[in-house]
Amino acid sequence: xxxxxxxxxxxxGMLCAGGVAWSQPYPAKPVRVIVPFPPAGANDIVARIVxxxxxxxxxxxxxxxxxxxxxxxxxxxxxxxSKPDGYxxxxxxxxxxxxxxxxxxxxPYDALRDFVGISPLARxxxxxxxxxxxxxxxxxxxxxxxxxxxxxxxxxxxxxxTFTHLNGVLFESRTGIRMTHVPFKGGGPAVIALVSxxxxxxxxxxxxxxxxxxxxxxxxxxxxxxxxxxxxxDVPTIADTIPGYESWTWVSAFAPAGTPRAIVDxxxxxxxxxxxxxxxxxxxxxxxxxxxxxxxxxxxxxxxMDYETIGKxxxxxxxxxx
Length: 322
Hints:
- The chain is an alpha/beta fold and 322 residues long.
- It is built from eleven helices and ten strands.
- It has helices spanning 2-22, 42-58, 73-80, 94-103, 139-148, 163-175, 187-196, 206-214, 261-275, 278-286, 296-316, and strands at 31-35, 62-66, 88-93, 115-130, 154-157, 180-183, 201-205, 219-223, 248-256, 289-291.
- The strands form two sheets. Strands 1, 2, 3, 4, 7, 8, 9 and 10 form an eight-stranded mixed sheet that branches. A two-stranded parallel sheet has the order 5-6.
């Protein structure tokens, strides 16, 4: 009987200890933030600006983990297969996140069902740039040159299905030109290829290229937003040449599907607080990124819209990978 009482007391103590652990406020340990691309791309830039602020606000480390490969699918798969407890997050652009569903015949996850959106973090606008060796000095000149040299102009991008790749395909669809797309393992390597002259052009996030534009190592021809951007005031919009042209996306935070709503809401609120911080806003602005904060439902709506739009675009150009 004495042994039984000791055993009961032991298990009661364990349950109480477990109850204390279960009741600890989130986050009770470091959070892994997976960026499915190498450093220096838009996703990585945003993550390294925003999450140190969340660490400060929430009193716990948010550790950036670059897991590059296959246009972001490798890192995304890691998150989809992680425990839905808020301790593994994904940073992806809304467009790239759903594009892989149309690009690959088989994915180890469903972009719409296997994740829950937390919030957008930043709005990303792209810019059409060319290597200085290319004679085109405006969007009309570039279109004319590309029509004279079909498939000869090399468009470097950060991987099939990424925002950079999507922008190249969209530009082709609106102009009737045809380029040869050259994939790299992320935004950083793709920019290096453009600067070195390995590729001829790129329609990538402004933040990835602005330093090279200002140093004249690449030439900016047009931005993809409806209006000019303050950081590149002398660069016209592509819409000046192609009326109605507009392309932008959100860099967003996601968690595995099934993550408790209380955690999603807490993270969403903390993102909102971070976006109101002057230092975060100024650092994002310096990279030509607009701070963004929206409810999870609005992010989900944007994903569904991008899913349909990108699907039609890829079918039009027969863009597909095995």
